[in-house]
Specification:
Blueprint: E1 19-20, E2 31-32, H1 38-43, H2 45-54, H3 56-62, E3 74-78, E4 81-85, E5 91-101, E6 104-112, H4 118-134, H5 138-155, E7 164-165, H6 176-190, H7 199-206, H8 210-213, E8 217-219, H9 223-226, E9 232-240, E10 245-252, E11 256-263, E12 271-278, E13 283-285, H10 296-304, H11 309-321, H12 327-341, H13 350-367, H14 377-386, H15 389-392, H16 394-398, H17 404-422, H18 431-443, H19 450-470
Antiparallel strand pairs: 1-2, 3-4, 3-7, 4-5, 5-6, 8-11, 9-10, 9-12, 10-11, 12-13
Helix pairs in contact: 2-6, 4-5, 6-7, 12-13, 17-18, 17-19, 18-19
The protein binds zinc ion.
Residues 5, 7-8, 10, 36-37, 39-40 line the site of zinc ion (ZN).
Length: 471
C-alpha cells in the first residue's frame, strides 16, 4: 500500500518534495518524501519559518550546515547600537549623517566592522554607493573616497571584547505549539507507526488551531536533557500503553525544549524511539537517552507549568559554553594558522601581518569541523594574536627555505625590508634617530635559530657602522 499525505490525505508519489522533519535551516538533515505532499510541504512551511525565526540567534552563533544557502543575517546590539551579524559572523553597521553648509557637504560616518571580513566589504560597498549618488564626477569621487578611507584607517577605534546583546523571545509569531506538533507528528509518521493515533494532533495543525493546541504543548527542561555535553537536536517518542499516553519530547539546540502530547487515550504499540542529531558532526548519533516513565499526573503538571525562566537561562549558558575555545583547540588553530602563513610567498610587514592574521584566523575558525565559533570574535582574534609571537620572528619563516644559500639571500631581503621600513621622511636626515629606530625594530624580533640570530646581529652591526660613517 502506497502512502498518503499526513495532512491532506492525497496519494504520495516519488516526486514529492522531501520534507525536513527538523527544519534544514536549523541544520536538520532527516528528510522524507513519504510523509507529506509537495503542496502541504509549502503550505505548512510558515510554521518552520517562524520556528527558525525564534531560534535565529542560536543559529547565527552555531552556523549549522545546511543543504543550501548560507546562514542568514541577524540583528544584535553592540554599545547600544543596532548592528547586523553577517553570514561570516562579523558585526556590521554603517551610519551616514549628511549636513550641508554653504557649498560644502559634511559627512559624518560611523562604522562598525572587523578588518578582512564581510563586514568591511559590505561597509565599503555602502560608502561607495553613497558617494556614487553624492558626487557625479568620477575623478573627484575617487579622490574623496581615498580621503575617506585614509580617515577611516586613521580614526578607527579598536574595541576589544565588545559586549554583544541579543534579544530573544520564543513564540514571536504565536505558532510555536503548532510547529512543535508538526515535528512530533512527522517523526511519528516517519518512524512508521499507525497514524490514526495522531489524527487529533494532525487536525490541530491542519486547522491552524493555535489556542486549542496550547494545552498539548509546553516548555519542558528535564534533567536527562540538561546533562548532555554536546549540542543536539533531539526527538524522543514514547508510546506508553500502561499509562495510555503517546507523547514526544523535542529539543532544539538544547535550548528550546518542549513536551508534546499526541494522544491521552493511547492504546497502540509500546514505543520507545529516540533521534539524536549532533550539530557539531552534522549527523545522527547512536545515543540512548535514559528517560524515566512519565505518569499521567506528571504530564498534567508539565503541560500546566509556567515558563521555566531559570532552566531556560541555564540551558543558554550551556549552549554558549561550547563557543569558548579550549586550550587544545586554540593550539590546533595556531598550528593551522602557522602552516597557512608559510604559504604566503613574500616576507610581510607589520601591517600585512595584522591583516593576514585576521583573515587566516577567520578562515581557520570557519573551516574548523568542530565549528566552535566564537561569539566575541575580536576577543579570540586578540587571544590568538597574543599567542603568536613566533610568527613575528622571521626565522620561523626563513626555516622554510631549505638551503643555506637561499636562506641567507632571504635573510638579506628581510633585513633590508626592516631597514627600509625604518627609514621615514622624518628621520631620513637624522642619523642618530634612524639608528635608534633600526635597532629597536631589529631587536623586536626574536630569533630562535642561533645561526639566524648571529647573521642578523652581524648585519645589524654592519648597518649601524655604515650609518656612523655617514655622520
Ligand atoms: Zn498534502
Amino acid at each position: 500500500m502506497s502512502k498518503k499525505c499526513l495532512f491532506c490525505g492525497k496519494q504520495l508519489t516519488d516526486k514529492e518534495k522531501p520534507e525536513h522533519i527538523i527544519p534544514n535551516a536549523l541544520g536538520g538533515k532527516l528528510k522524507s518524501q513519504s510523509i507529506i505532499c509537495s503542496d502541504c510541504n509549502n503550505k505548512y512551511s510558515y510554521l518552520d519559518k517562524n520556528l527558525c525565526e525564534d531560534l535565529k540567534h542560536f543559529t547565527a552563533i552555531l552556523r549549522p550546515k545546511r543543504d543550501n544557502g548560507g546562514v542568514p543575517e541577524t540583528d544584535c546590539e553592540v554599545l547600544g547600537k543596532r548592528v547586523s551579524q553577517l553570514s561570516d559572523g562579523s558585526l556590521q553597521s554603517a551610519n551616514f549623517e549628511v549636513a550641508k553648509s554653504e557649498n560644502k557637504l559634511n559627512i559624518h560616518l560611523q562604522l562598525i566592522e572587523t578588518p578582512g571580513t564581510l563586514s568591511e566589504k559590505k561597509n565599503r560597498q555602502k560608502i561607495e554607493n553613497f558617494f556614487k549618488n553624492a558626487i557625479k564626477d568620477p575623478i573627484k569621487r575617487k579622490e574623496e573616497l581615498e580621503e575617506v578611507y585614509s580617515k577611516i584607517n586613521a580614526e578607527a577605534i579598536n574595541i576589544q571584547n565588545p559586549i554583544v546583546t541579543i534579544k530573544n523571545s520564543f513564540n514571536q509569531n504565536g505558532t510555536l505549539t503548532l510547529a512543535m506538533l508538526k515535528i512530533a507528528i512527522e517523526f511519528y509518521a516517519w518512524s512508521g507507526f499507525d497514524i490514526s493515533w495522531v489524527k487529533d494532533s494532525v487536525n490541530l495543525v491542519v486547522q491552524k488551531k493555535i489556542k486549542e493546541s496550547a494545552p498539548w504543548v509546553n516548555y519542558y527542561y528535564p534533567e536527562a536533557l540538561q546533562q548532555l555535553n554536546e549540542i543536539y537536536h533531539i526527538v524522543i517518542l514514547k508510546g506508553d500503553t500502561t499509562n495510555k499516553l503517546l507523547y514526544a519530547i523535542v529539543s532544539l539546540y538544547g535550548v528550546l525544549n518542549m513536551f508534546v502530547l499526541l494522544n491521552k487515550d493511547y492504546n497502540g504499540l509500546d514505543i520507545n524511539e529516540s533521534y539524536v542529531f549532533s550539530l557539531q558532526e552534522s549527523q545522527r548519533k547512536d545515543i540512548e537517552i535514559d528517560f524515566p516513565i512519565i505518569l499521567r499526573q506528571e504530564v498534567n503538571d508539565i503541560l500546566s507549568s509556567q515558563y521555566p525562566v531559570d532552566k531556560f537561562e541555564s540551558s543558554v549558558g550551556r549552549f554558549l559554553q561550547h563557543f569558548i575555545f579550549s586550550p587544545k583547540e586554540k593550539e590546533l588553530s595556531l598550528q593551522e594558522i602557522r602552516k597557512r602563513f608559510f604559504c604566503i610567498p613574500q616576507p610581510f610587514t607589520e601591517q600585512e601581518f595584522n591583516r593576514n592574521v585576521n583573515i587566516l584566523i577567520s578562515d581557520v575558525l570557519s573551516a574548523n569541523p568542530a565549528f566552535k565559533r566564537i561569539y566575541q570574535q575580536d576577543k579570540v582574534l586578540d587571544d590568538i594574536k597574543q599567542s603568536l609571537p613566533e610568527i613575528k620572528t622571521y626565522d620561523s619563516y626563513i626555516k622554510e627555505f631549505q638551503t643555506e644559500q637561499r636562506r641567507r639571500k632571504k635573510l638579506c631581503t628581510i633585513f633590508m625590508e626592516i631597514v627600509n621600513e625604518a627609514v621615514t621622511p622624518s628621520n631620513m636626515h637624522n642619523i642618530e634617530q634612524l639608528k635608534q629606530v633600526i635597532s629597536t625594530k631589529l631587536d623586536s624580533y626574536n630569533y630562535d635559530d642561533e645561526n639566524i640570530k648571529q647573521c642578523m646581529l652581524s648585519l645589524k652591526k654592519n648597518i649601524l657602522a655604515l650609518l656612523d660613517n655617514l655622520i
